[in-house]
Specification:
By secondary structure, this protein is α/β, with parallel strands linked by helices. The protein is built from 20 helices and 15 strands. Among the domains are: 83 residues, Gyrase A, domain 2, CATH 3.30.1360.70; 85 residues, no CATH class. 53% of the residues lie in helices and 11% in strands. The radius of gyration is 28 Å and the shape is globular. Bound molecules: arginine. The site of arginine has 10 residues, from α12.
Length: 581
């Protein structure tokens, strides 16, 4: 049980004693440490319901409240209950964490399966910075969910069956440079795609040729299928390299094409069940009128009122769409994987698609919990969508390359004596970590301005700052001669800095589950920054190796616990720690 849960259960017992029936204890971390560690507004809420004086009710509750060995309580303002946890209780809990591999983190997800649908770039197109957000946020949420006990299935739903293949097939047959394909497959596919695309724009006959290639592919033409297959393979290999560098892994890569042979039957089923109907030759899903208009994703408000905004699942020419594939995907994940939850980590522009998708799935009887975890854009210094100087989309691989190069410069300046290969390894850890942390420490819904200097700063809200805190603790332990057994130490929390550090260490297990309330890895980022700051204050105020016993051992134990928590917290963001930098 976390501290918060323990307080909640004791308060719940007191509430039952006072009211003669259970009532919600509503304990939350205190907004301001000066008033205590935790608070509850239960007395105020209950007094309002019962029309009694809230402070008097609060007093009655406190009289029945047994906080032995845990905390002290006081009434504040109109009837808040404020709790201050006893230093001894923090010491006991921190000591228990030393022996706990999981650092006090519970497993609320046990027994539930979640599919995390993230990254999902489009084959034969380069991954751009928009995909970086999905990849990093999705990977972190998958890691966090796994640590919280969920059975996590990470699925890369790549776009491997789009209309882009008409152009790519045409380019492959007429423009391909096999050597270039060998050297950098994604770049060569992009080149031929671009050239054909430009040609098709200028010449309608070319556009028709491309469409004909696509139709042949969709009809199962052997030559086109073989080329398509080849494109997928080389693209995947290129993607794998980036994922390896990012340390991102998937359990499956079931791209759009995997669902092809399910689409026709699905559309028939939607027609038979009356969820979809034919309109102008296309099969469409319309509003079923069951929702208030403002909440109905199949309606849109135009000047003359609400009008239909259907989702097409089969075009008049017989072609299927993104939405059709996504419906088939929902069915597969539910039938084959028994997914309780599906989290789609995809940008804000696809919001309408997912609202329609989830509504259609519900009408189809799919009951799982489906969530669109949306995110905003990455902006350049000019606050416009980030682009390269030539106006192209910035590519993820280039971002990583530059991050590592810049990290190498920072490290060379800070620690010029490091051997070259060691410095290179550290630069990789710091550079990639900086990019990930810059992403994850943002509120995912706001657009964020990409800044190399800000993300690589050693002092600031950055990964290098956290990694440096970890490195400092490693340095303390390197200076220690002889073994150290944290588990054998008694913790003494005399200084306020010691107490505050212990308080934050104990809070790790409380913070982590809250991240999934609204899918906000930035809560973890904030927590780790606060922990690192608490560590630095502690380290300035409290000598460690030079302290007398029992403080010395106790402080070493706090250091060890801090380094484990930093390492674990960063690992849940997919960020590694160096032991020097
Ligand atoms: N390939 C899509 C894109 O790049 C993202 C796919 C997201 N997942 C899904 N099941 N729709 O925009």
């Amino acid at each position: 049980m976390t501290l918060l849960q323990e307080l909640e259960s004791r308060l719940a017992a007191a509430l039952t004693a006072v009211l003669g029936q259970p009532a919600p204890a509503a304990v939350t971390p205190a907004a301001d440490l000066r008033f205590g560690d935790y608070q509850s507004n239960a007395a105020m809420v209950l007094a309002k319901q019962r029309k009694v004086n809230p402070r008097a009710l609060a007093q009655e509750i406190i009289d029945k409240l047994d906080l032995t060995d845990l905390a002290s309580a006081e009434i504040a303002g109109p009837g808040f209950l404020n709790f201050r946890v006893l230093p001894a209780a923090y010491a006991a809990r921190a000591a228990a964490l030393i022996r706990d591999e999981r650092l006090g983190v519970p497993t609320p997800g046990a027994g539930r399966t979640v599919v995390v649908d993230f990254s999902a770039p489009n084959v034969a197109k380069p991954m751009h910075v928009g995909h970086i957000r999905s990849t990093i946020i999705g990977d972190s949420l998958a890691r966090i969910a796994r640590f919280l006990g969920f059975h996590v299935i990470a699925d890369n739903h790549i776009g491997d069956w789009g209309t882009q293949f008409g152009m790519i097939l045409q380019g492959w047959k007429t423009l391909l440079d096999p050597e270039a394909l060998e050297a950098d497959p994604i770049a060569e596919l992009v080149r031929i795609y671009r050239e054909v695309n430009a040609a098709a724009k200028a010449d309608p006959a070319m556009l028709e040729t491309c469409k004909a290639e696509l139709v042949k592919l969709q009809a199962g033409d052997a030559e086109n299928l073989a080329i398509w297959q080849h494109c997928i393979e080389v693209s995947k290999r290129g993607l794998q390299k980036i994922y390896a560098r990012l340390d991102v892994t998937f359990d499956h890569w079931l791209g759009e094409s995997f669902y092809n042979d399910r689409l026709a039957g699905l559309v028939d089923e939607f027609l038979a069940q009356g969820i979809a109907r034919v309109s102008n030759g296309a099969v469409c899903i319309f509003s079923d009128g069951s929702k208030p208009q403002a909440d109905d994703p199949f309606l849109v408000h135009k000047e003359d009122g609400w009008t239909d905004n259907p989702a097409i699942i089969r075009k008049a020419d017989g072609g299927f769409l993104y939405a059709t594939t996504d419906l088939a995907t929902i069915q597969f994940r539910s039938d084959e994987w028994h997914a309780d939850h599906v989290w789609y980590v995809v940008g804000v522009p696809q919001q309408l698609h997912f609202r329609q998708l989830f509504d259609a799935a519900a009408r189809w009887g799919k009951t799982g919990d489906l969530r669109h975890i949306a995110f905003g854009s990455i902006l350049g210094d000019d606050r416009k969508l980030m682009k390269t100087r030539s106006g192209d989309n910035v590519q993820l691989a280039d971002v990583l390359e530059e991050a590592v190069a810049r990290a190498a410069a920072v490290i060379a300046e800070k620690n010029p004596g490091l051997p070259a290969d060691e410095a290179a390894g550290i630069a990789e850890t710091v550079g990639i970590g900086a990019v990930k942390f810059a992403e994850l420490s943002q509120n995912r819904l706001t657009d964020y301005v990409f800044s190399w200097d800000r993300m690589l700063a050693l002092h600031g809200d950055t990964a290098p700052y956290l990694q440096n805190s970890y490195v400092r603790i490693c340095a303390i332990f390197r200076k220690l001669d002889g073994p150290f057994d944290a588990a054998a130490c008694r913790l003494v929390l005399d200084a306020t800095e010691e107490l505050h550090l212990a308080r934050l260490l104990v809070r790790f297990g409380e913070v982590l589950p809250t991240i999934l309330d609204d899918f906000r890895p930035n809560l973890l980022a904030n927590y780790l920054l606060e922990l690192a700051r608490a560590f630095h204050s502690f380290y300035e105020a409290c000598p460690v190796l030079k302290a007398a016993e029992p403080s010395r051992s106790s402080r070493l134990a706090l250091c060890e616990l801090t380094s484990r928590t930093l390492q674990q917290g960063l690992a849940l963001m997919g960020i590694k720690v160096p032991d020097k930098m």
